[in-house]
């Protein structure tokens, strides 16, 4: 059985972890969509609704609903008879999400997690990890290289 090292933290400190998790949960889906759209475009393809649905493993109506949300939030725009494109704000969100993903994935690989599992696990962790923890991951990887 695993025991706690310390007493419960102060209620404000304790609740902050739950608040951060709720915020991350709300933004995770948006970040996943925007990052995927950026990846499809950078891969030389158009980000079409059908491709987004296939890669996320969801239905096209689900994608259509999310694209409406992303559009209303100013992250994407659509062109008639073409795919989905990122606004400048959407590009920034995609880049930040991609960087977080790359740091987490690289860290997991550096501690011995297989590439395949690191890629899968990083997809979830990237949304929940703090900037402080990301910086610690980078520092640990940098120290390991020396």
Topology:
Layout: H1 11-42, H2 49-56, H3 60-72, E1 76-78, E2 84-86, H4 88-110, H5 115-128, H6 131-145
Antiparallel strand pairs: 1-2
Helix pairs in contact: 1-4, 1-5, 2-3, 4-5, 4-6
Task: Explain what this protein looks like in three dimensions.
The protein is mainly alpha-helical and 146 residues long. 72% of the residues lie in helices and 4% in strands. It has helices at residues 11-42, 49-56, 60-72, 88-110, 115-128, 131-145; strands at residues 76-78, 84-86. Strands 1-2 form a two-stranded antiparallel sheet. The radius of gyration is 18 Å and the shape is globular.
How would you concisely characterize the structure shown here?
By secondary structure, the chain is mainly alpha-helical.
Helix content: over 70%
Average pLDDT, rounded to a whole number, is: 87
Number of domains: 1
* Tally of contiguous helical segments: 6
Which sequence of strands runs across the widest sheet?
Answer: 1-2
The strand count comes to 2
Keywords:
single chain, 146 residues, mainly alpha, Arc Repressor Mutant, subunit A, two-stranded antiparallel sheet, 4% strand, globular
């Amino acid at each position: 059985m695993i025991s706690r090292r310390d007493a419960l933290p102060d209620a404000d400190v304790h609740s902050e972890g739950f608040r951060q998790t709720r915020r991350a949960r709300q933004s995770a889906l948006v970040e996943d969509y925007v990052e995927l759209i950026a990846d499809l475009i950078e891969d030389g393809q158009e980000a079409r609704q059908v491709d987004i649905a296939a890669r996320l493993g969801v239905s096209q109506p689900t994608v259509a609903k999310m694209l409406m949300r992303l559009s209303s939030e100013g992250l994407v725009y659509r062109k008639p008879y073409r795919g989905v494109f990122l606004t400048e704000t959407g590009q920034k969100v995609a880049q930040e999400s991609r960087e977080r993903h790359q740091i987490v994935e690289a860290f997991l690989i550096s501690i011995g997690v297989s590439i395949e599992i690191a890629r899968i696990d990083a997809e979830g962790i990237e949304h929940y990890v703090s900037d402080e923890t990301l910086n610690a991951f980078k520092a640990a990887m940098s120290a390991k290289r020396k």
